[in-house]
Amino acid sequence: MEFTREEKLSLMKSLMWDYDIPPEHCLEVLEGTRDKAGHYDEFGLFRKMIESYRWHTVIRILPPERVSELLTENLISGLRFDWLKKQYTFIKNELSRTLQASR
């Protein structure tokens, strides 16, 4: 079940606790309707999100198709922790397989 817009904005505000960037801008960047939020592009913001929130939270913020677009090999290789790289490599493969099967 997807979060409400208000819940998503609250999560964006928490994510950007250290910057004065409007949560609406962050959500719009992640949804693909805005180019930047402050100095963050969609990949930088998505990386910050997956390093900060659990997978089950991420998938309630963005639809699987959008997560699949943002979850690139380059992004995964740039994650700070090896365990997170392994987790998101697995998620990327499973998500890709699931989305292909549903077409």
Report on this structure.
It is a single chain. Helices cover 68% and strands 0% of the residues. The chain is mainly α. It has one domain. α1 packs across α2. The radius of gyration is 13 Å and the shape is globular. The model has no long low-confidence stretch (mean pLDDT 96).
List the helices and strands and how they pair.
Layout: H1 5-15, H2 23-31, H3 42-52, H4 55-61, H5 64-70, H6 73-77, H7 82-101
| Mean of residue pLDDT values | 96
Radius of gyration: 13 Å
Q: Give the DSSP E fraction (strand runs of 2 or more residues).
A: under 5%
Count of individual domains: 1
> Structural class of the secondary structure composition?
mainly alpha
- Strand element count: 0
Element pattern in H and E: HHHHHHH
**What is the end-to-end distance?**
21 Å
Query: How many helices?
Result: 7
The residue fraction in helices comes out at 55-70%
Q: Give a short account of the largest sheet.
A: none
Shape type: globular
